[in-house]
Amino acid sequence: MRTWFWTLLVLVVAVGLGVVLREHSGNVLIIAQPWRIELSLALAVLLVLAIFVVAYIVLRVVAWVVSGPERFRSWRGLRAQKRDHDLLETGWINVLEGRYTQADQDLARLLDRTRSPNTKVLAGLARAQASHQLGDYERRDEALAVAREASGTEPRLKEASATVAAELYLDQNRPKEALELLQPLYNASSRHVNAARLLLRAYRQLNDAAHVYELTRLLQRRGAIDKEQATQFIEMSVASRLRSAGLSGFKTIWGELRADEKTLPDIALAAAALHEEAGQHEEAGRILEASLNVGLDARVLNAYSQCPPGQVARRLSKAEAWLKTHPGDSALLAALGNLCLTGQLWGPGERYLLRSMKIRSDVRIHALLGNLYDRLGRSSDAMKHWRLGASVAGVLPVLPASGVLPAADTRGDPTLIDVAAMPEAVPIDSVPLAPIAASAADYLNPDGVGAPPADAPSARSVPTPPAPDSDLDEYFDSAPIPGIDLSQTSDNPRGGRGRG
Predict the structure, then answer these.
(1) What is the pTM of this model?
(2) CB atoms within 10 A of CB 464
(3) CB distance 380 to 452 below 8 Å
(4) Is 192 exposed, middle or buried (0-12, 13-18, 19+ CB in 10 A)?
(5) Quick check: bond before 463 cis, omega within 30?
(6) Cα separation, 285 vs 269, whole angstroms
(7) Which of the listed residues 23, 199, 204, 452 has the most CB atoms within 10 Å of its CB?
(8) 126 touches 91 (CB < 8 A)
(9) Residue 299: which residues within 8 A CB-CB, separation 6 or more?
(10) 3-state SS of 364-378?
């Protein structure tokens, strides 16, 4: 459209000049001694225009010839820039596709050729990524040094170099070096979201719960972290802070939490443990109850079932209320059984533990049943469940006869019940008859082993003789050994007398 406009304008000007020049018949006289030149006005105008056009063309040609070297240098620069761009693009694509060896070769060639600082920084960072994935950390550090040197004083390039280097150090589990690079970026601008994320990762590797909590809150306010991940980080960090601060710093940390965060399992367990150590069992129970009202976590249920006898009634009523809405929860049934054992409610405890065992065969449930039956004087049932618990835990390897296994340290296992810490029950021998639960008196297990009849003598008055077909028969076979004549051995009585 623009071309048509200018063409039309030139035609209009030409027509106008033709009309004007035709109506003016004047002459132009040029006197240059000894010459006298006389021209018509139209011819003079045309000559002036022609001279202008020729002079313009000549000057343009001279300028083009003079600028030849500069144009050649520019052409070479553009060609080198295109080559660098192609190599950088190919190298980054190879890094993203996982072709790290080819990417390292292309980027190394680019670093040797390019003179552009920006290109050198980008190529150095890309090569550092490729070398890191290949496990060549020495070459990676060399590439990072090249990128850091090429960035100079350019803020954005320096920031990019520091961020990439910190991320690679974190992948190598070197959080201290990463902190040295990231802390200045975060201090300069707290809105640097990526630096905050990397700092959170570094403090998690250092187990710095206070900074993890602070950065998680910051990223949560800006919507820069997933909600579930933030909840997980807050749960772990707050639980660690509570254990470190103790009961003296409990109120400060507890006041920073929202209501839904106070019911998270790890936080509730840590807070309840502080109150349990201080003897504040009611407050510990309320904290655990708030968590269990939200969701029945097995660890929280186990902690809730560990209480002194004075708290059994309250906790049993709460647990039975939960059982109405969760009748098939094995952990809840086991907690109810444990509470019954603490309160010496043998019959209900047995029922709860048997219901839990039907849902899930667990070592802890078998151990509790074994302890229950041992307190009731039912040794065979107790031994059975202890053996079942051992079989659920796993089969022991065959060990040399001379080897001695060291005792396992199970004090830190949260799923174990400290029998020594349980309230002391009334000894069996101190009562006229061994206590037999009403629910266990008529109970017959699937193997046919039941409680002793009601008219049987007590365990204290009549000692139980060892049965001839005891469990030892499982391990000793009395059948004769094939191929051996026992009459010729020292075990034969007649053979022994003959020798005498």
Answers:
(1) 0.65
(2) 11
(3) no
(4) middle
(5) no
(6) 10
(7) 199
(8) yes
(9) 265, 269, 414
(10) HHHHHHHHHHHHCCC
